[in-house]
Structures are given as C-alpha cells and as structure tokens.
UniProtKB/TrEMBL annotation:
SUPFAM superfamilies: Amidase signature (AS) enzymes. This is Amidase. It comes from Glycomyces rhizosphaerae. Coiled coil: none annotated. Its EC number is 3.5.1.4. InterPro entries: Amidase_CS, Amidase_dom, AS_sf. PANTHER family: AMIDASE 1. Gene3D superfamilies: Amidase signature (AS) domain.
Length: 375
C-alpha cells in the first residue's frame, strides 16, 4: 500500500461545526510551516515554505477541522489518473489494484481508507468528481469563484475550483457550507436532464449501473438532447477540445516560465501535456473561447433554476494501475461544468463488476447548495 500522506502532524482541535473531523489537505494548498510540493520534487526545491495557511485550509480549521496530513497529488494537478511518477499511486480501497483517480488522488485515498473525514482537493477538469466516482465517495466541484484559492498552486485559473471529498453526504454538506462564499441559487432542484445524446455515448454497463440512481431520486427526468439540433456531428467532443485547449494555454501561462527556468522532471503524460501547451497560439484560443461562450449560453438555457444535468461522473470504474485510460472520454463528461463555471456533484451510484461508479449532477453557477440538498 502507498501511504496517501506526504507527511503527517498534529493539529490542535477547535470548537465549531467541523469539530472532531479529520482533514487531509491536497499538496497544492499552503499550510503554515509545511512545504508545498505540488506533486513534483523540483517544485518543492524551488519554493519557500509558506508562513500562512491557504484560505480554504484556514476556514476549515477555524470551523474546528483537525488537519492530519498533506496528500499526494498528480504533478501540478494536471492529470485525472491519480498516479505520480515521483511519489507513487495512493491506494483505492474500493477498487484494489486500480487507480484512485486524480489529481486529488491522495485526498480521495485518505478519505476512502478512513484516515480522514474530509479530503480537501481541487477540480479543474474533474479532479474531485472522478476520484469520487472511482473510490465510491461524495465530492463537490463548486461554482467557479465561490471558494477562495488564495494560497493554492494554480493549474488553469479560469477553471480551477476547490472542494472536498467525503464518505457521506452530510459531511460533504457541512464542510462545503464552511467553504462556500457568495450568493446561492433559490429554490430546490425538481427536474433532472439526462440527455440521450450524452447517455448514448456511455458504455452499457455504466448506463445500467448509474441510470437507476437517476430514477431513484424521484424527480422529473427529461431525456431530450443537451445540444439539440446542431450542425456539429460531435458537439461534446468539440467542447472537450475547447476545454483542453484553454486549460493547456492557461497552464502554460501559469507555469511555463518556471518550467523553462528550472527544467523539472515530469512523468510522461504531464511532460507531453506541457510540451503541447507551449505550442498553443492565439488562433487556437479564439476558436476555443467561442465554443466556451456557446457552452455558457447552453447551460444557462438548458439548466434553468430547479434543473440539474444528470450524467455519469466517469465512463466506467477505475482502470488498473499501469493501464491506459481513455482521457478524452473522461473529459467529455467533466468539461461542461468547467467550461460553464458551473457546480458539479459526484455521488456513489452503483457498481460495474463490483467496482464503484458515480453519478454527476451539474447545476448552473450558484447551484451548489441545491446540489448539496439533493445529495
């Protein structure tokens, strides 16, 4: 077993709504007096030890949570696998021998193993929702901007969010209630959009495992297509490409200078993604931004107040360690929330061959509390 913790330490308990709950912190967030490694040894070597907690950590601590450790993350958070070429792969107790999902891999593993009650993570393109699905956990990607990322290492700032993973919905709601800032949407979710054009792309075994969860919620379910009548034969793939282009461009803006100055050693997948990111030009960005604007309008139109998108959180269960994931298929399911800055909830839904798979519920921006109520 690979220990999901990079290091552990004692934290003085406090009174508050999270009193008695143990918090595992993804190694993108600063902890005062503890190095932030961002999943890469060179980053650890070239950055000062922080003197203050990241804002999200400070809020959770102030509410009584007790920090028990920092956890492994995929390098600079740029992966959905949960593997790390330098620090190994945290264990997935729900699917032994398989990945926990990334990049909030260690936080998911710590919670799934019962070593923590709350796993603080980030979600740029699915890095909370995918680990939640693979490990049989609950996880929320909040509306973009509703949780402070001050004191956290960025990946793609216009997509980055901070949320938590838990073993139960009550703890998720409690912890996110501490973190969420700003205005919430009014009124409960009463209708689910489970669009046929997306569900038709899901493997049959996953459809059979997840759709009963959708139906069990007792809400009106609409199966009409998400994209409707469009000229694009593959609108979901177009959305994925736009997301990948914008994410890569932002990642290079955030870290390209550091990479060129410090020549860090990355694992194969991260190496390839940064190499590609360095080549993206303004014409690529213009096309991707136009697609993004279309997704923002689509979400506003198809997910009005009281409606949530209901699709699988991942195409299937966790893949075997050393296996080859279909990254594109995963991102096709997670990119809508990222492009729209929307909130996305992952809840356990069922199993495929005894391995967990999750349901993803996406609400328009501001719908975080409504999703937590539904959970």
């Amino acid at each position: 077993m690979t220990d999901p913790f990079i290091r552990t330490f004692e934290d003085m308990g406090r009174e508050g709504p999270l009193a008695g709950l143990r918090l595992a912190v993804k190694d993108l967030f600063d902890l005062a007096g503890v190095p932030t490694g961002a999943g890469n040894p060179r980053w650890l070597e070239t950055h000062e030890v922080p003197t203050e907690d990241a804002a999200a950590v400070a809020r959770l601590r102030a509410a009584g949570a007790r920090v028990v450790g920092k956890t492994i993350t995929d390098e600079l958070a740029w992966s959905l696998n949960g593997t790390n070429a330098h620090y190994g792969t945290p264990e997935n107790p729900a699917a032994p021998g398989r990945v926990p999902g990334g990049s909030s891999s260690g936080s998911a593993s710590a919670v799934a193993l019962g070593l923590a009650d709350i796993g603080l993570g980030t979600d740029t393109g699915g890095s909370i929702r995918v680990p939640a699905s693979y490990c049989g956990l609950y996880g929320l990607r909040p509306t973009h901007g509703r949780v402070s990322l001050e004191g956290a290492v960025p990946l793609a700032p216009s997509f980055d969010t901070a949320g938590v993973l838990t073993r139960d919905a009550a703890t998720l709601r409690l912890a996110m209630g501490v973190l969420l800032e700003g205005t919430a949407a009014a009124g409960p979710i009463t209708r689910l959009l489970a669009p046929q054009d997306i569900w038709d792309e899901i493997p049959e075994a996953t459809r059979a495992a997840v759709m009963p969860k959708v139906e069990s919620l007792g809400l009106e379910v609409d199966h009409s297509p998400l994209f409707g009548e469009v000229d694009d034969p593959s609108p979901l793939e177009t959305a994925r490409v736009a997301y990948a282009t914008l994410q890569a461009w932002e990642a290079w803006q955030a870290h390209g200078g550091w990479i060129e100055a410090n020549a860090p050693e990355f694992g194969p997948g991260v190496t390839a993604r940064f190499a590609n990111a360095a080549k993206i030009g303004s014409a690529d960005i213009a096309v991707a931004q136009k697609v993004r604007s279309g997704i923002v309008a689509l979400v506003r139109d198809r997910l009005p107040e009281g409606t949530a998108l209901a699709i699988p959180a991942a195409p299937g269960p966790a893949f075997k360690i050393g296996g080859a994931p279909d990254r594109e298929a995963i991102v096709r399911l997670t990119c809508i929330a990222g492009l729209a800055g929307a909130s996305g909830l992952a809840v356990p839904a069922g199993t495929v061959d005894g391995l967990p798979v999750g349901l993803q519920l996406v609400a328009a921006p501001g719908g975080d509390e409504r999703l937590l109520e539904l959970a």
